[in-house]
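Structure first, sequence second, as always.
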């Protein structure tokens, strides 16, 4: 929750390298407006590429993977999933495409977050569209085989209240012009996936990270 606490934000310093990147982003945004008017098809192609790459990367973080060849087939020609992993990948892409299609129409509130969660798991038998029912931890496996706790998320009991406050703070900061109008990438969905109902149990990710 500190990420949207105004006092916490005001105390943060931006490294020189980050300042340079922000300057470049401003320049590229201006160019994007030009491309949107002159060659919209190029931006559309780039957007679709970003959606596909985000879908693969975000699901890999969660330990949801399919063979590379099959992943490309699913992205090119969405079809009936063969297993749970494919179902989640297709649901994630569908939710992400919905966000990118008209980001300005999305309100940041609990209903929106739970709705996207429900869409991601719509092709599975996993209960969705609700906050998590049990506590969990994020753990990392060290090179010697030991597991250590990297992060302890908000408890299941506290999650509804925290998410309500999260939305209130986000919208307040957005109204004040202190943050971008709409988050539409992996981070936006990651917040939703991390706090909404999760039945992955002790599923381990690709890089020695697991949720418990």
């Amino acid at each position: 929750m500190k990420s949207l606490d105004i006092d916490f934000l005001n105390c943060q310093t931006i490294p020189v390298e980050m300042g340079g990147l922000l300057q470049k982003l401003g320049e590229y945004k201006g160019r994007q407006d030009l491309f949107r008017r002159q060659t919209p098809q190029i931006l559309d192609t780039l957007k679709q590429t970003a959606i596909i790459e985000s879908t693969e990367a975000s699901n890999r973080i969660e330990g949801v993977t399919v063979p590379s060849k099959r992943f490309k087939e699913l992205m090119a020609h969405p079809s009936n999933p063969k297993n749970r992993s494919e179902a989640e990948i297709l649901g994630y892409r569908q939710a992400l495409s919905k966000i990118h299609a008209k980001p300005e129409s999305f309100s940041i509130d609990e209903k929106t977050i739970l709705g996207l969660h429900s869409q991601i798991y719509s092709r599975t038998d996993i209960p969705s569209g609700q906050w998590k029912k049990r506590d969990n931890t994020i753990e990392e496996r060290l090179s010697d085989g030991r597991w250590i706790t990297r992060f302890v998320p908000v408890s299941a009991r506290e999650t509804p209240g925290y998410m309500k406050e999260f939305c209130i703070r986000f919208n307040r900061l957005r109204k004040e012009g202190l943050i971008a109008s709409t988050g539409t990438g992996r981070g936006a969905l990651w917040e939703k996936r991390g706090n909404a109902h999760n039945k992955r149990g002790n599923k381990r990710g690709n890089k020695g990270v697991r949720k418990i």
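Margin note: The mean pLDDT is 78.
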